[in-house]
Predict the 3D structure of the following.
Amino acid sequence: MSPYEVRPAALVLTGSRRYRLTVLNVGLACCAVEAVVAALGDSEVPGELPLAGPDDAVEVLVVSGTVTDKLAPLVHRLHAELPGPVKVVSFGACANSGGPYWDSYSVTKGVHLVLPVDVWVPGCPPRPEALLAALQELDGGAA
Amino acid sequence: MTGPPPRSRGTIGLLEENCTVCMLCARECPDWCLFIEGHTELAPAVKEGGRPRTRHVLDRFAIDWSVCMYCGICVEVCPFDALFWAPELVGAEPAREALVDEREDLRAWLRGVPPPPALDPSAEPAEELLAARRLEAITAQRAQR
Amino acid sequence: MTDVAARLAAVLPAATVSAAYGVVTADVERAGWVEGVTAVRDDPELDGTFLDLLTGVDQSPGGFDIVVRLWSVARRTGVHLRTTCPRDDARVPSLTGVFAGAAWHEREVAEMFGVDFAGHPGLDPLLLPEGGVARPLRKEHVLASRVDVPWPGAVDPADSGEGGRPSRRRLLPPGAS
């Protein structure tokens, strides 16, 4: 029996209590670290990741990192198997367009070729506050 | 969370007055994300019977932020100091096309460019100041004669 | 460094041992590849018990080199072993019998260069999607994006407008021919 308990880890981000979104971070590369820092900074308990509970349905999918051609079908499947409508955030240059790997033989030139993207966040990597600003944009642009 | 530090690579501002459309930034960009167009115009000769001078005129200068990897090669390679880092963040957009900034937007980013670090007190003054002082001295000398 | 090279030459008498830039390399014939790697692994002095890397080099227009680095954790020294295969017979014995960990390295070299590893339990693609025909690390492989996407640096203001200089040498971006 494995000593580790594996459960899907969606995060609840609240943008300083202006909204409440259940966010699934599809952390594929370096941008994942910035997305996690955004969650850490958003937590009520400093340094603790605000994990979603069993009743929280994923509302936002953040693709943070490079999508390779090998992994693209899995990213598509992950999005397809989520119940309910989900907004997609393309986080970082690699998710937007392939970024620095725009000419690679193995990189998908942007997750928009695999999923419908609602918000595009530029950066390499974007700062954590850029993700929080993008989530705010999704939530109706409330200032 | 405090804002980005002053020398952060947030965005790039374009000072068009310094740009000679040499195309070095567009050529050196590893992501091919700078789009520059220009044309040449003739200016009158300086002296009587001289050759007309060729001037490059900038038509388009655009940066695609969805591809940019913020390496700074364009800023470093510009021989005329027309590009500057600014710590402001390029905002998220609902469409990828909106992440392309044209020359007006790039000029606006200059508002965030921090002043250059102060020179060491014992350092030589900036070259422009030295040139201006030399010119003043020469003008004063000629006025005295 | 010289004693490592000397020991390697003694352990592999049929190989050509060279040393350059702090790296000792033994060039081994393809037929003796498995025996050579096994000998370096089992030798008590060289102690090449850690397979650090297994990779390929496209020596176009020649064949392919397969390069292996064996490292001794106890002695903190390593040696390179290298074999070659011709382009039209790109086949090398697999090292999975010597190092189980060579399996994934050989899968990567197989998909990137198109080299077959005889005796490998399953040369499925590792990093590239299934069903691909491209061999991306071969020198003749062209990066499609650098051909399809127009290079912004190809534009020259001198080409349009009055006073432009004629026949300026066209520059090409790196990676395009």
Notes: The helical segments of chain A are 31-42, 72-80, 93-97, 128-138. Residues 11-138 of chain A form a domain with the Rossmann fold fold (CATH 3.40.50.12280).
